[in-house]
Amino acid sequence: MPLAPLLVIAGVLGLAIGSFLNVVIHRVPRDESLVHPGSHCPNCGHTIRNRHNVPVLGWLLLRGRCADCNTPISARYPLVEAGTAVLFVAVAARFGWSWELPGYLYLAAIAIALALIDLDVMRLPNKIVLPSYPVAVALLVPAALLTGDPGALLRGAVAAVLLYLLYRLLGAWGMGGGDVKLAPLLGFYLGWLGWGAVAIGAFAGFLLGGLAGAVLLLTRSAGRKSRIPFGPYMLAGAFLAVFAAVPISDWYGTLLSASAY
Question: What residue segments make up the domains of the chain, in order of their start?
């Protein structure tokens, strides 16, 4: 089937999901309901009108301010919506019309929510991480059966255990409990793609986290004992592997072959 319609669908879906993720990012850390009350201004409490709830466009129409009390509305809201749409389009381009596509779109959605929540409150909520396990199984098991690749599930399960053990070991050196709970989920998704994706995703997470920590230390934005959220770097590393594990593995293999002569 043509890819272009899928990309359009993914983009529109990403905008809508991104709008919902803004609610998730704001309310889950506060243990608030995602359903009641409806979207409202946190300053004056007025309900947001439907026309102002249109992703990205609503914020532009309001010029970044509440229609009732004129309080500034953070630019992060439209950025989350647009960013989710871009990531959904990228994932759709990566997997095309495939049975595993819904599973990786779900991973993209929770990745955005978890990364921003971790940056905000330095916590990866169980309310998002733990339910994602049965969701991943429900989405990827049928995909494996329909594509005739049950080995991907076994590989994902083994990768999940390995990353859990790795992060559990690192927990003794300060790795957060939320990171330990997230690691097997990422391992399951990366293992589905192959061992190269597992290795690259895990390594990239540590590399990106280390580089970010070094920058914070050099700019004196954090000290040696400061807590730094690691979830965003785990997730960024995982998606680097999702999109680029094959070319990175090929490049590394070429280096090894060249060094052998």
Answer: 141-261
